[in-house]
Amino acid sequence: MTDSPTPLSDVELVRRAQAGDTLAMASLLDRLAPYVGRICGAIALGSGADAAQETLIAVFRGLRGLAQPEAYRGWVRAIAVREAVRIARRTPTVPADLSRLPAKGDPQLAADVQDVLHRLSPEHRAILVLRDLEDLDEQTVAELLEVPKGTVKSRLARARASFRKAWTA
After folding, report:
1. What is the pLDDT of residues 43-60, one digit of tens each?
2. Domain 96-169, CATH
3. Which of 87-101, 115-129, 155-169 shows the lowest per-residue confidence on average (mean pLDDT)?
4. pTM of the prediction?
């Protein structure tokens, strides 16, 4: 019986990909795809797949320039947020009729949440995703979105208020 090789850590994959190892690059992108897809899908909604693809392309092109392989995850998250917001801004959304939202106990709850998120601006979706889903602190969110910390606080308050208003309407 032969032992299977121990899988490489993400940081080792980053280092190997930076050195030109195409198999390491492919493995790294495969590992990142679900994470990137989750972030981009929550922010760019129906265009999430496009944002995820643009993110992975940017990672592929820019990985050699990443000075700290240990920080790759935060670097990828910043790219994903930037691409998702950029694509969400250029994709027109049609507001849904708020009066047709099902009751809170309805089995369509996940669809309802998605529907309410769809009505928020890309900036508000990004703030909610980063703070409430990714559980990042306000300073980190401010750095990712390249806005002052006070802007994060005010956008977060407005985004949560808009979400609650749409949810309870």
Report:
1. 888 899 999 999 999 999
2. 1.10.10.10
3. 87-101
4. 0.70
Who contacts 115 (Cβ-Cβ below 8 Å, separation ≥6)? 96, 101
Average pLDDT of the chain, as a whole number: 84
Calculate mean pLDDT across residues 163-167: 78
Fold of the 7-92 domain:
Rna Polymerase Sigma Factor; Chain: A (1.10.1740)
d(CA 11, CA 28): 9
d(CA 101, CA 114): 11
